[in-house]
Amino acid sequence: MSELVYTLLEFCHVAKIDEQLVMEFVEHGILEPELGQDQWLFRSDALSRCLLAERMRHDLQLDLHGVALALQLIERNQKLRHRIDYLEQLVERLRH
After folding, report:
1. What pTM does this model have?
2. Which domain does 85 fall in, by range?
3. 34 has which bridge partners?
């Protein structure tokens, strides 16, 4: 099964977000589009990241630097959580 890929206009339509804000998200490293035939392309995982970023910006009133930092910390936390889970499974196997 192939992953959904959106053009900038499709992405804005699906995310219900202004094109200018998406460009600002890209400028701040919140979103990282791929370049395809002279246009930006966004994978489906960028959609959930964009929606989360917009909620942080709107609900928590974070500026874009704050949103970028919060997203980095969330991702780092998730990676650490995965490592901890892996190590706990490894310890459990060694006990048996």
Report:
1. 0.82
2. 5-95
3. 41
> Could you give the number of structural domains in the chain?
1
CB proximity list for 9: less than 8 A, separation 6 or greater: 19
CATH at 56: 1.10.1660.10
Nearest Cα to Cα of residue 29 among 74, 78, 65: 65
38 Cα distance to chain centroid: 23
Instruction: List pLDDT tens digits, range 9-54.
Output: 999 999 999 999 999 999 999 999 998 888 999 999 999 999 999 9
CB 49 within 8 A of CB 10: no
Assess contact for 34 and 43: CB atoms under 8 A: yes
